[in-house]
Amino acid sequence: MKEHDDKTKRYAILSHRWKEEINYEEMTGLMKMGEEERKEVKQRHGYQKIIKSCEQAMEDGYEWLWVDTCCINKRSSAELSEAINSMYRWYQNAQVCYAYLNDVGKSTFPSREDNKKFSESNGWPEWFVRGWTLQELIAPKEVQFFNKDWVHIGNKRQLEPTLERTTRIPRGVLRSGLAGKRLSVAQIMSWAAERRTTRVEDRAYSLMGLFGVNMPMLYGEGKKAFQRLQLEILRTSSDQSIFAW
User: Fold this and answer.
1) Max CA pair span of the chain
2) Are strands 11-16 and 64-66 parallel, antiparallel or unpaired?
3) What pLDDT, on the 0 to 100 scale, is given for residue 245?
4) For the CA atoms of the chain, what is the radius of gyration?
5) How far apart are CA 143 and CA 132, in angstroms?
6) What percentage of residues in the chain have a pLDDT greater than 90?
7) I want to staple 46 with a disulfide (CB 3.0 to 4.6 A). Which of 21, 89, 99, 192 is the partner?
8) What was the pLDDT predicted at 244?
9) How big is the CA angle at 53 (ends 50 and 57), to the nearest 5 degrees?
């Protein structure tokens, strides 16, 4: 694992729905494990996902790939806080973001709602209802989508009409991000309204980058995290639409 300046280093970055993942300690300690333990780790879907995304990055000419599951030492509260506060910038500065849709089997991107196939995620792939993937769609210049078998099924520019319909995010934002856009706080909040996070605090933390604010992580504070987010937004904005949330 090496640290680099995200503004000067060319790198790819992964966006995905967490499932059976590999963490920092397991990845850095892989070669020190016993044979059985190492075999178990390598058989996990999360490990295979990292390998496939590395292969894709190499194929695209990138020497470096960043993956949130194994590139953050979550045992260090300082490192975790820095990572979450930097996350939007890291996705924004990546040359390409690989969006892995683990529940899409077809070789084409879903073009319409399918409530039978995606019954637990509003008729669309689960990636579209997760909290953290909102900024991971907006921040990067380029997003390439892959199905569960790592077949390429389109990019953000090609899929703008479908993405706009699915997420309610205007095409201009999908194309070039939030900079220079006259958007209300309420409008940005509305994009996240139906998204879910595993930890209740992450509903607030996953929105910090979209509003350009920073605050310390206090896992365990519950819904107070969202109140702190609102206060931080009010420090930099006079937009009264925030009170709608």
Assistant:
1) 59
2) parallel
3) 67
4) 18
5) 15
6) 90
7) 21
8) 78
9) 135
